[in-house]
Amino acid sequence: MQIHTHILKEPFTMEQAFHRFRDRAKERVSLSDKAKVIDRELPELIVSILKEAKEAKNGFVLLPGNSQKSQIGCPPGWHEDPYHNNEYVFQISRMNHWLPMLYAYSVTKDESYAKKIIDEMMNWIAVCPRGPVFAEDKTPQTGYFNSPAAKEWRLLECGIRPYRTWCPVLEDLCFSPHFTPEVFETALYSLYEHCEVVYHLSPLAWPKADHNHYLMENLGLLAVSCMFPELKDSDVWKAHALKELCRCMEQQVDEQGAQIEGCPSYHNGCLFWFAMVLVYGRKYNFTIPQSYRERFERMAVHSLYATRPNGTNVPWGDTSTLTGTLAKAAVCSYLGTSDSSILNLCLNYYSREDLLKEAEEQIWRMDDVSGFITALKQCQPAQPGLPLLYYNKVLKHVYFRTGWSREDLSVMFACRSPIQNNHAHIDPCGFDFTAFGIPMAVDPGKYTYQDGEARKNFKSMQWHNTLTLNNQSAWDYISSWRYGPQKEGQITGCGVEKGMIWAIASHSNYEPAVHTRALALVSGEFLLVIDVVKHLNPDDSVQIQFHIDRPHVQVKDNTGNAGWNENIFLSVTSNAGTPVLIPAKISDRNDVCRDSVILQYQKFQPEETEVFVSVLCPSKGAPAPVPEHLTISRHPEAAVSFLLSGKQYSFVMTAHELKKL
């Protein structure tokens, strides 16, 4: 075996580093210590882990490209791509399936788990060699390592593997008879190679520190440099990683606590990644700036707003709905701060069992497992006590709702143009609407990252609650990760008054035409949508589409009707023409989709300025009412009125304000 002592500080030998690593492991709280507490207090979590570990040991793993667990081989086919999906190749080499086996080992001390993990690690290192970080002319190979061509050695995986799987595995298998000095040396050298890639290339790939990849890459660098101080570059790596992780917080999370990509899934993911910095700070005794902690705490509040009343994510951008995502935010908030307040708020949406399900993964990372379990058992439902309207200026997002119960009406409205990165979809002036705990007119979600028709559909204007001109998206879709240029869009006003919560947005992507949209929850009863389009040509056509979360919608005149559970209904009425129904799909998680319907209205030969009024009226226990006697005035301001359930409603809209008369 090759001796890799050149990666160590002098005067350490590899044998000394091996024994020092084991000695440090004796001084910490091990997974076995945590497992005893979990088994005593939450035995159902142990049962679940053992079941998952058995499947993983037998090679059955859930990976992108398939909605079901499938056989990955023994050893795994690290280079295989059975579903022609890059994400499969990336994620199999993150080795997430090791974690349930590691936790099962901590419970059972069954050495077959340790052997399985170590054998796979050694096999991966043997069959997946790293290429050179620099070309022969000393040029950094940043483009290669930050692309799918790098496969197992893509920059992101070089960061994820160390913090998520390799470091925990090495730390908690270090007393197994299968963890030999040779295994230690081989794994340590590979981790050194990982850190070389991240240290030299990640700052070149993400110079602004404004992407979640950079956060995870530096988290991996921090994990290795803290766990293995004998490495010759550990001090430099640790200082660099800490500086850059603090910069990630400054660049990726705004003052209000929102992750700048505007995708709730990634926001909640970042809550975990930023929490791990605080975990490492406590574990390895280094200081985290107070400004970092304060911004982290505000992230949990943003997660609360980005959660529908039924407890699912608003699936904006590359986001899946995934019931329990606020639970993840709450558990990760506790992981970072030991503050249980968000756990209490979660009980408005979830049961303790839901919180326990999310805790299955994070509890193993808790400093004080007993303290977390006590907090979990003692938490009580609590109202947020937060404003019902939340406007994030950086994201150009507005969240508003009629209250904080599951029955309340809730809207997320956005006009992010230009976008921050290509996790965003093409949806200026789009929205997501929930009532009575039912997502009704919705964002379709993500479904896949794989380029193709499905990816294009899920990202396009036509599958969002938007207005299009001439059936064209607001900007060009080139490929899964490439868009054409975008023009300015913005939230121009929002407010709460006279039983109405409203917001207005405008964008110029159809220049010279300008689209301005007002959304309002009125009297806690319906959602009003007013669209004003200026500078139209006679040969233009305007489409307004509503993505209805039902496979069937009935149309009569200018109204579409949908129903849920024979008890909850939605009527959508618009003056934009007779609607047509277009089959579509909605995705709640990767690689899984279900049928839905686009309700599309279309106006041909428009006037130079057009005003369209749409009313989305939900109801419970009886069919939804339909507005009558709609009147519209275009000059000098957009004024609309109609009769609904025997009550007259009148509104006046400017570019910056909506008034209820």
Our Rg estimate from Cα atoms comes to: 27 Å
What spatial order of strands do you see in the largest sheet? 11-12-13-14-21-18-17-16
Secondary structure class reads: alpha+beta
Architecture per CATH nomenclature, i.e. the level-2 architecture of the domain at 389-660: Distorted Sandwich
Helix content: 25-40%
Rounded mean pLDDT is 95
Termini separation comes to 83 Å
CATH class call of the domain at 389-660: Mainly Beta
Largest sheet: 8 strands, antiparallel
Overall body shape: elongated
* Strands, total number: 25
User: Which ranges are low-confidence, i.e. pLDDT below 50, for 5 or more consecutive residues?
Assistant: none
* CATH fold node name of the domain at 389-660: Beta-galactosidase, Chain A, domain 5
Number of helices: 18
Measured by DSSP, the beta-strand proportion falls in 15-25%
Give a verbal description of the structure.
This protein is an alpha+beta fold. Among the domains are: 97 residues, no CATH class; 272 residues, Distorted Sandwich (Beta-galactosidase, Chain A, domain 5), CATH 2.70.98.70. The protein contains 18 helices and 25 strands. The strands form 6 sheets. It has an 8-stranded antiparallel sheet, with no helix packed on it. A 5-stranded antiparallel sheet has the order 3-4-5-6-7, with no helix packed on it. Strand 23 and strand 24 form a beta hairpin.
